[in-house]
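Section handout 9: paired folding examples.
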Amino acid sequence: MHGHHGYTGAADPRSRTVLDIAMGVLVGLRGCSPEEAFAELARVVNGSGIGIGRISGALVDLARGASGSSAEHAEAFSAWGTLIDGAKTRTVGAVG
């Protein structure tokens, strides 16, 4: 996953891992490409002013059921809470 539309990489490799995981969450839930997932993250970053590493971490937290009271957690919930809640409902309520 290199060359994300102008993304030059984070100084901390863990930040890049969190970004890749966040993109994977969106790819899995939306069925979109990694490029589309990155573009969606970038739109939230541009709209909120929260850095991509922080918003990615908040999305990952949200996806794994962790909550937080920070601005990035609030923004992640606003952007993806319904998507993630819907996925959890479909998973829990799935009948074979």
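Moving on to protein 2 of 2.
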Amino acid sequence: MVFHKHFLFQVTKSLPSWVRTIGLLTIQWLKIAGVKKIIGIDIQSEKLKQALDLGVNDTIDPSVQDLENEISRITDGLGVDIAMECAGTKITEEQCLLVTKKGGKIGFQGITYSDVLIKQRAFEKSFAVN
């Protein structure tokens, strides 16, 4: 994984999507790179606890919390600067598009072994010019 140091030091809010092995490693790299605010997402409470132990500032369990609303609340309505998709599922790839701010960055680390169709709302939120 390669990070451009100057870019990451400007990042204030980052989101590793799904806190499994790759997500936990991503959290550690984001911390090393100087990211100040990291949000961890998973549907398993033990994985969220591990993320907190590694220094994540906030956690979200999308099985019991509305992901978009929680990200909006945590980021004061802006969305995250960078989202690192670590699970490789259609759902998490779309979620990254929905919670990343305009002009933000998304890193896809997980591998989806099928086509990913982007719903209109996710496309417009990420790419449409207002």
